[in-house]
Write a structure and sequence with these properties.
Elements (H helix, E strand, L loop, with lengths): L5 H9 L25 E9 L14 E8 L6 E7 L4 E9 L9 E8 L5 E8 L2 E7 L5 E8 L2 E10 L4 E8 L2 E2 L5 E6 L5 E4 L5 E2 L9 E6 L2 E8 L2 E9 L8 H12 L7 E10 L5 E3 L5 E6 L2 E4 L5 H31 E6 L3 E15 L2 E15 L5 E5 L1 H32 L4 E3 L4 E9 L5 E8 L2 E8 L6
Antiparallel strand pairs: 1-2, 2-3, 3-4, 4-5, 5-6, 6-7, 7-8, 8-9, 9-10, 10-11, 10-12, 12-13, 13-14, 15-16, 16-17, 17-18, 18-27, 19-26, 20-21, 20-28, 22-25, 23-24, 28-29
Helix pairs in contact: 2-3, 3-4
Amino acid sequence: MKKTTLPVLAMAILLPMSVSAQNQTTTSNSEVGIATITPVSNEEIIYYDYNWKGVPSAEYATYIRKIIRYADPNYHTRYKDSYKDGGVCGKGTLVAADKYDDTKTIYLEGKKMRKDGSLEMTFTMADGKKRFVTYNDDGSRCLEGMMVGDKYEGAIREYLNDGQAWIEKFYVHGELDTSKSEYISNTIYGDMAHYSLSTNQQIGMESPDASDYKEEFEDGMRWTVVRKNGIEIAICADHARDYGGKQGFLAASIARELRGDNGKKEYTRVSVFIKNNTTQSIKFDPSQIESKGIVKKKPKDINWLSFTDFTKSMDKAQRNALAITKIDMEHEAKNMATTSRTSNETSTDVHRENETSHTTTKGHSTKIDKHINERDVHVENRDYHETVDAEQYARNMEVAREEIARYSDELQIVNESKRQAYLQPVQINPFQSYSGFIYTRELKYKQIEYNIVINGITYPFSINVSDTHS
């Protein structure tokens, strides 16, 4: 998308319609009735060159203007500008047109279009001032403000991020108003930030209060959201039921690692979403996040699971999943190749368990089916004999090895994507977002407090663990 700087836009605004309307009067229809054809008093054609200076004929023209004057004085004189080689480039109403120098034309209101037909600018005239809005190629707003003659006057708003945010500076006779020490940026969500006019650095940052927080629900998950200083932060905490493995034993192994099946470990997963709605990059370091569990109104520090420890858990879970899968598939390959089995007494216990879990991050939800297959074979009789077809067993094992290799590749892809989602230090550029998750140890609190620090400002969050979803 093409963006235009302020000085260039100032010239674009001036041509072809930049003169102030002096001593204008605006009339309106005095009667409302059945629509009739309005008589035209006269029409006039004016030719302009590329600088909007008058030329005698179309031969020398770049722009051609058609002016329509109505016999009824209640109707304003209308104009329509076209490129010589075709296409409308402007239209609107005016008081008087100057056929020698368009800068002397007195306008009421109008539009300016590009050659492709897209809207470039709209404007209205009042009390000698032009209120204008310019647009980018994609139709989003670019600049908005007031001009007197050929100079900016008052608040000039420059839109950013496809019109969803803007900065606003003040001008006096075309120059920045130096009596003001700051300017602001804002968004459609009200994320206001203040900047020093001399250094362009963000200033006046404040700690959030209770009124800056609200709760939002997405995909059944409760998010606590704060917007302050041009930054949006949202967090969601839930029990670590699983880690969202792609399938089979990976999910089971990770669940055992993080859920605390052995009675020694248990975790809370904290998903974090940060949106930078300022005009400057910000740095986020998850190691600065403070977490405290509340016990009888007394806070107790909670440790984070470091990225290194998390990676070790992931690697261990992957090894366990592959080992169990290999044993299971080798057993199946042998069973399928067994032609006969004799035994006085055989007792086989088989246990299967299926679980379904739900893993979520803000803006993305994935349902994951975990199939935990555990086979315990117990043989009571020592007099046990099998006859195995060697060729069939070899074929079965070849298929099994291919499946295990494919499964190993899938696990590696899943693990790598999850590692990338684990929160790490990052720079968030203007109007960009960053999201991920992190784990806290020892989930045994009804309430956990989190302090997220960005640009030296602490954003506190309080989560009731009993209300979280899994």
